[in-house]
Amino acid sequence: MSSVSPAAVTVMEVSPRDGLQNEDTLLTTEQKLQLVQHALDAGCKRIEVTSFVHPQRVPQMADAEALCAALPTQSDVRYTGLILNDRGYQRLRETCLHEAGLVVPATDTFGQNNQGLSVDEGLRMATEIITDGNNTGFPVQVTIAVAFGCPFEGAVPLSRIQRMAEELAAAGPVELALADTIGVGVPMQVQQAFAALKQQLGSMPLRAHFHDTRNTGIANAYAALAAGVSVLDASIGGIGGCPFAPNASGNIATEDLVYMLTGGGVAHGVDIRQLIAAAGWLETALGKSVPSMLLKAGDFPA
Predict the structure, then answer these.
(1) What pLDDT digit, counting tens, does each position of 96-144 carry?
(2) What is the CATH number of the domain that holds 232?
(3) Looking at 44, 68, 150, 242, which residue is catalytic?
(4) Global pTM value
């Protein structure tokens, strides 16, 4: 695997949204704000704080507007929210958030389960929202979900991802991400996909989102780095999952990712000790152990 790793990366902290959305324990708005503050204290500059979805389908995110109204203001921090459709987009635009994170699944079955749209319908919806964002000066980034495999349809051909990426990029999002929503991807597949998109899309900023369902998450993050990806999603404590993806366990843990980046000499601007403390706090708040390896093993050298 040839390495073109960037000298510095941005860590997108997703624990307040993707981390909490699949947890049985519903944290209060105040606890979510504490989690956001932990991320800020660790130096995170991009934080996905909530999603604007139907509260009956994802009750963990029912307080989206209340959370946004209470977020601490910090000039160098970019808050984003996840949206699945125009209704969510309109709700987000009424808040203080800096960016909309749009999701378009790569298979019809997952798209129908996740947001009631086929792939082509999702692409049309996304194009309309991205265009509106451009027309009104509001940043919209887009993620292709289940890009490396679908729980309902199985393997997803790279050619489909490339077709979707081409159509989405033409609308002009500020960033395009590939998500291994159910944690089935392997490093060689990840490197091939992002290398193909780099060649295809030129200067379009790329982001990667991995779940550690099959213990390949950190390796996949390294593969994305080797392909030149400079923004990586991660979740404090390694919590998370998708309510509509059976057996999809947590995201890669932010502290585990930062350990790898630090050891590899890749700048990231995040304090690993603060992250480990945050994972410990989260374990108490959720009333259960979290997947984080650094919380168990500690940093090295201490």
Answers:
(1) 999 999 999 999 999 999 999 999 999 999 999 999 999 999 999 999 9
(2) 3.20.20.70
(3) 242
(4) 0.96
* Total number of domains constituting the chain: 1
What HEC string does the chain produce?
CCCCCCCECEEEECHHHHHCCCCCCCCCHHHHHHHHHHHHHCCCCEEEEEEECCCCCCHHHCCHHHHHHHCCCCCCCEEEEEECCHHHHHHHHCCCCCEEEEEEECCHHHHHHHHCCCHHHHHHHHHHHHHHHHHHCCCEEEEEECCCCECCCECCCHHHHHHHHHHHHHHCCCCEEEEECCCCCCHHHHHHHHHHHHHHHCCCCEEEEEECCCCCHHHHHHHHHHCCCCEEEEEHHHCCCCCCCCCCCCECEHHHHHHHHHHCCCECCCCHHHHHHHHHHHHHHHCCCCCCHHHHHCCCCC
pLDDT tens, residue by residue, 244-285: 666 667 899 999 999 999 999 999 999 999 999 999 999 999
Q: Is residue 3 situated within a structural domain?
A: no
Question: Is 242 tagged catalytic?
Answer: yes
Domain coverage including residue 56: 10-297
pLDDT band at residue 2 under the 50/70/90 scheme: very low
